[in-house]
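The authors assume throughout that readers already know how a fold can be written as discrete tokens. What matters is that the chain and its backbone geometry are given together, residue for residue. A single example would do more here than another paragraph of explanation. For illustration, here is how one protein appears when written out as sequence plus structure tokens.
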Amino acid sequence: MRRLLLPLAFAIPALFSTGAQASEDLAWSYTPWVTQDLLAQAEGDETASEEEDDDNDWRLYLDLYGFLPHENEGTIKLDGNTNKGNLSLSDILENVSSIATVRAGVERGRWGLQTGIFHGAVDFNDSGSKYVTRDHSRVRKLTGDKVTRKLTLKGDVEGDFHLDQTLIDLAVRYRAGDVQRPKMDQGSFSFVGFAGARLVDGTIKTDIDVELSASYEGPIVKAERSKKQSFGDSWSHTWVQPLIGMYATYAFSPDWQAFMYADAAGFGLAGEKDLSGNAQAGIAYAVGNSTQISLSYKVFGLEYSAYGNDNGYKTFSHGPNIGIRFLFD
């Protein structure tokens, strides 16, 4: 019996020692994997928390830009007369009388509001061989008769035209993807969709000189004259268009981004013809963490004809657009 118990007395502590050592080795080998998983989970939770906090911050975007269309086509229809002007960039710079372009947006979380103002006033001239008037007082002055229909003046017609146009946008916006910033991680993508209203105010003014070299005729009168007639016309109208649009950004490096902007408004709801829209695509470069400069190509168009009369206008422009964006958060 003593021979049996004595080896057991030495073997049991050795077994406990070996088990403890094995347990310690297992713990040491297992602990790094558990620690890595816990640290990764903690970092993920922390990152998600930071993104959630950042997503709930207030942000203000301010865009100042200069549109430099190298071609601008304008058609004015006033009192039944259609006059066209085709202006190059140098013509626009020489004849523009006022201009203002700005866009701003505020965002908290994924929802926000945005607004934009585009104002431009330009002068041009056109010539022709006839001019139609429906002004009853002018017809009576020229003919001496109470003509209630149109009168066509034939001769050498010279006209100076002034087009004043202001667009004010107000829309609700929703963002999908990453927060738009001047600096974004490579591969980041952001998409903003918006819907709202566009207020359009258009004014046309004309000064017409007609040198009557042949005759003018109406439905009940025809007379020969050869003298100069000068008069002015004007038309002004303000209307509201429904507006939808989008703005997408992709960062192909932390400092460089590609972007695309498009909107459309009107859809024929406020006039016989009623449509406006912008399309723009370009690249942007970050200057610091809160400023960005951009170069893009832009197309803008608007066409409007009022119900029940012969007044309205159409304009189409395209060319480079230079912008600067500020982010305040």
In short: Confidence is low (pLDDT under 50) at residues 4-16, 26-30. The radius of gyration is 36 Å. The first helix runs from residue 2 to 55. DSSP finds three helices and 14 strands in the chain.
